[in-house]
Amino acid sequence: MARHQEQLGAWLFRPPKKERFDPVVVKTPQLPVWTANKAHLITGYLRLFQHVTHHGTYIDGFAGPQNLLQPDSWAAGLVLSLQPLWLRHFYLCDTDPEQVKRLRTLRTQHSELDVHVYGGDFNQRVNLVLRRLRAEATFCLLDQRTFECHWETLVKLAGFKATANTKIELFYFLAQGWFDRAIAGLGDAGRLQAEAWWGRTDWTSLLAMTAWGRAHAFVQRFQNELGYTSVKPWPIYASEGERGRLMYHMIHATDHPEAPKLMARAYESAVSPAKVGDQLMLITE
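^ thats the sequence. predicted structure below, dont judge the formating
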């Protein structure tokens, strides 16, 4: 039976149960991360993690800037500008032709780096990206608007072994602030999209849950179905002027034993940038 399972291929590979490490308990922070800081949360984490790996690949499935008036909120732009930058390979995708133009301009601005730009639906382009990956620590940002990232895409990403011991690390944004409104506005085609996003026909069960309940439903599926060792939902809030409404959960899924602790440090640094230097000293000591 074991030999037969090995022959099913990477996409159907189910990793064995692993000892879970959960050194970090996520709770309501004393200082919340605002939506304007979320790109800095991502880059802050990558800055810390590359001090451990000294290499890596960055994948961004929905890479175009979401706010053209705030260039410092563009995660892909900030990642390519990290100093020092030890990530080696970058794969950026967006379905919007105008966003693809911006990504190509960004690639030109960083011509010294190995940057690949893909136009089209990441749920389809993910196969092309996975074929080009090397065996090294790999991070995938999935900053979808609401229902764009299909569950099958997560299955493909989780089924790829980035290194001998780890999967591709995921940064998955789960929309919360407008979830009920988005569901209510779905037509027939939208309902099919929601089903593809959740990966099952019972996606309407999410409507009866609180925002944190939905987040934990995803956490359970990332652990039990995708096989990640540690999965944490990190809250992202609206700006202070909007009374701090919960807008997203950034679900961090990883197999690396140090990653949850680094994520906690990055979250704190996103609201206290002055502490970044102290965090780097902790990593390199």
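The beta strands are 57-60, 89-94, 114-119, 138-142, 169-175, 230-237, 246-254.
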